[in-house]
Design goal:
This protein is mostly helical and 580 residues long. It has 31 helices and 2 strands. Among the domains are: 159 residues, no CATH class; 101 residues, no CATH class. It is elongated and about 115 Å long.
């Protein structure tokens, strides 16, 4: 049965019945029919919420129709079973029944709990029997389930739209649900009750029967228990049936303390309900994002996180949703073991990401990840996920940390000793080529060394490697020369080499003599007539400026020399303008 296909028929059937019952009169048979329709609609609505985990316009409309049915049910109880099932201040009119439903909807969502705590009554009609009380109790359960579903759905959507939403909720939770807050609430409650007891004793000068003393001091335990049960009371049975455990009078002070105490307990109850909901329903009714968040959250036990993961497995991309968060949680030593259990449950789909994460983190994290890989598959270097991770590992060979490069090289050799010749390595070449322009010498050097290992597959990096031949550091220049020889021995005759001429010409006026000499050697290798190329002539505006405004005389003189070789006329003109 697919409940989403039955929402619209249920709404239509309910509305037809509500209109029809206005003309059919009151009979016990119709009362039973109303109760059956309410139950059927509730089943359809609950099934949809559990399976889809979202609130739709159809569900909202069905629940509004349910309220109309409950209103009709109370009228039928009044007319069919007798007026004794209710009490009222004035003779009930049709809007009093609507008021009864509206007030109890607000009570069900705890909007006016404070009014109940202060002893305020705003409706004319009140239930007076088990039958009318059970009807209200059923309505409270329906409203509570709908509101909880809407609340979780709204929080899920909010967290998607705002990256800081989850952080905000966590901060609120830390503030409200904390030992200090709970301790303060406890001290406040104990202080109030003790004050009440001593005030009561002082009025009677401590001259009371023993049973009065017992009842008085029993309130010390019964008052907090009563308020706790009212928060945990899912169907608000305490309010509906007028149950009360203690004998303390309702005053302004007691109502204020009660509201504050229930507010603190309510936050704890939300967490408890969420955990209970997850365990009992096995993740049903929660969205994909909700389940993914549970899988990586330290607030849930390993068992609950595994429940969420199993519920996620029916979605194709579940691993991509969970793995990044699990890898991040590995940085927390306390969560490392729990996250490892989730990885073992994921199994083979996690190997790819786990291997990629080996290049990051400290030695302890790498050891933990290596242990997880061994447990998932002792032969993980031969797995498909290991082959998929090769491009990412190759990128890590350009890391500025020597120990990381050494470790990654060992992993690559373990996965595939012939990795430099694999076609998949091409994916890492653009990243390595970009690393050749990194401001850190170690990164440029490591990238060039890796490109040398890759060889002909790294042809896209020739242009940047030629530019590195005029690098400030000799190690980087030598590594780039080795890489070019490995990739294309006749790199001097390529278009990429010609495209690098403007950069090399600019290096001819570098303040370092070694850089100037290196750039000159490269230009001569590319072409003895490099100064006649279009690339060289494109640097004339730059050289003209530098011969006048260079940082020092060495650079200014170098600019004049280069400019004289490229275009003697331009150099003479510039010199004449200076003298003028």
């Amino acid at each position: 049965m697919k409940p989403d296909k039955h929402i619209k028929p249920a709404i239509i059937l309910s509305l037809i019945y509500i209109i029809g019952i206005l003309f059919l009169g009151n009979h016990i048979f119709f009362l039973c029919i109303t109760a059956c329709i309410i139950f059927l609609n509730f089943y359809i609505s609950l099934s949809f919420l559990l399976k889809q985990g979202k609130i739709t316009s159809g569900i909202i409309l069905l629940n509004l129709v349910q309220l109309l049915l409950f209103c009709r049910l109370h009228i039928q109880i009044y007319n069919t079973l007798g007026p004794s099932h209710y009490s009222w201040n004035s003779l009930p009119r049709w809007y009093d029944w609507a008021e009864l439903i509206g007030v109890h909807v607000l009570r069900a969502v705890d909007v006016i709990d404070f009014m109940e705590a202060y002893g305020i009554r705003i409706q004319n009609i009140r239930n007076q029997s088990i039958s009318s009380g059970l009807a209200l109790f059923a309505m409270h359960i329906m409203v509570d389930i709908f509101i909880l579903g809407a609340l979780f759905n709204a929080l899920s959507r909010w967290s998607k739209k705002s990256p800081t939403a989850i952080q905000f909720m966590e901060e609120v939770e830390k503030t409200v649900i904390s030992p200090k807050t709970f301790l303060f609430a406890g001290i406040m409650v104990v202080g109030y009750i003790m004050g009440y007891i001593f005030e009561y004793l002082s009025v009677y000068s401590f001259k009371m029967p023993l049973n009065v003393y017992r009842r008085l001091f029993s309130n010390f335990f019964l008052w907090p228990l009563d308020n706790f049960l009212r928060v945990a009371d899912f169907g608000d049975a305490f309010q509906i049936f007028g149950w009360r455990l203690h004998s303390m009078k309702t005053t302004l002070n007691s109502a204020t303390v009660a509201v504050y105490f229930r507010f603190i307990i309510g936050f704890y109850m939300i967490g408890i309900v969420n955990h209970f909901y997850l365990r009992i329903l096995g993740g049903q009714g929660k969205t994909v994002d909700d389940l993914a968040s549970i899988c990586v959250s330290h607030k849930y036990s390993v068992e609950e996180r595994l429940i969420a993961l199993r519920a996620l497995k029916k979605f194709d991309s579940y691993a991509e949703l969970v793995i990044p968060g699990l890898i991040s949680s590995m940085e927390d030593e306390e969560m490392r073991y729990d996250s490892a259990e989730i990885f073992l449950e994921i199994g083979q789909p996690a190997i790819h990401s786990l291997i990629e994460s080996l290049a990051a983190g400290d030695a302890d994290i790498r050891d933990a990840i290596h242990e997880i890989l061994e447990k998932i598959d002792p032969d993980w270097p031969r797995s498909k996920g290991a082959c998929q991770a090769i491009p990412h590992l190759v990128k890590s060979l350009a890391d500025d940390r020597g120990h990381v490069r050494f470790f990654v090289a060992g992993i690559l050799e373990k996965i595939d000793p012939h990795w430099p010749r694999r076609e998949t390595v091409r994916q890492a070449v653009p990243h390595l080529a970009k690393s050749l322009e990194d401001r850190r010498q170690d990164v440029r050097f490591a990238a060039a060394c890796t490109l040398e290992k890759i060889g002909p597959l790294a042809e896209r990096a020739v242009f940047r490697l030629v530019k590195v031949l005029a690098d400030e550091h000799e190690d980087a220049r030598n590594a780039a020369a080795g890489a070019l020889e490995s990739i294309r021995p006749r790199w001097q005759k390529t278009e990429d080499a010609c495209f690098a001429i403007p950069h090399l010409v600019e290096m001819l006026i570098h303040e370092s003599k070694d850089v100037r000499n290196a750039a000159s050697d490269v230009l001569e290798k590319i072409s003895p007539k490099w100064h006649q190329s279009g690339g060289a002539r494109s640097t004339i505006p730059y050289l003209t400026t530098m011969q006048t405004y260079g940082e020092n005389e060495t650079m200014r003189q170098a600019a004049r020399n280069v400019l004289k070789r490229i275009d003697p006329a331009a150099e003479s003109e510039a010199g004449g303008s200076i003298n003028g």
